[in-house]
Amino acid sequence: MNIFRLAGDMTHLLSIVVLLLKIRTTKSCAGISLKTQELYVIVFITRYLDLFTRYVSFYNTAMKLVFIGTSVAIVWYMRLHKVVKQTYSRDEDTFKHYLLIPPCFILALLIPLEFTVTEILWSFSIYLEAVAILPQLLLLQRSSNIDNLTGSYVFLLGAYRALYIVNWVYRFFTETHKIRWIPWISGLVQTALYADFFYYYIKSWKNHEKLRLPA
Amino acid sequence: EPESKLHDEL
């Protein structure tokens, strides 16, 4: 474990805490894409299939349980909680997220890490995570005003994978000396998708103005 | 150690 990966995991955890904080304190999920949250449930379940078969460390197991548990809890809040579900921006959250699943699955069949079920699903999960934020970014462009917690959530979510890229560079030079095409390229694509959001987020933060994404 | 066993990351 290196500091970049720990920072990445903590940033990822913090993004989920911020989102849960927003939903629980404001009893609202306005501006949050349910489709992105549903994709994350698929990402975590297909990535952590080895949760009960392979023990890496207490930290690893605990974090996997937290990520699966919180992502399911968020979907539950947005779909079933009697108050929160009324605040879901159903009309704006229109990205056809199910269209993202077949290409990622086909890509995982064509370029898996290994031809085993768990590794094909792991590769699928890596590819899917790279594009899972698209419905959320589209929804942000349609939101007239993005509240601070939602903006912070998306920023932290983008920042976590950027920190993972630093972790991969660090591990390449200090540990593995092996190129890991699948996570690296997916991670670069994933972080690149946040590029314009990062630009407008940092600009709004510097100018102390409301965050707005151009439509 | 094949790469896949390297899934020590989240």
UniProtKB/TrEMBL annotation, chain A:
Q: What's the domain of life for this entry?
A: Eukaryota
List the GO biological process terms.
protein retention in ER lumen; protein transport; vesicle-mediated transport
User: What is the name of the protein in this document?
Assistant: ER lumen protein-retaining receptor
Q: Per the UniProt record, which residue ranges are transmembrane?
A: 55-77, 98-115, 121-140, 152-170, 182-202
**Which terms in the GO cellular component ontology are assigned?**
cis-Golgi network; endoplasmic reticulum; endoplasmic reticulum membrane
Q: Which organism is it from?
A: Eucalyptus grandis (Flooded gum)
Q: Which PROSITE patterns match?
A: ER_LUMEN_RECEPTOR_1, ER_LUMEN_RECEPTOR_2
Instruction: Kindly state which keywords UniProt assigns to this record, in alphabetical order.
Output: Endoplasmic reticulum, ER-Golgi transport, Membrane, Protein transport, Receptor, Transmembrane, Transmembrane helix, Transport
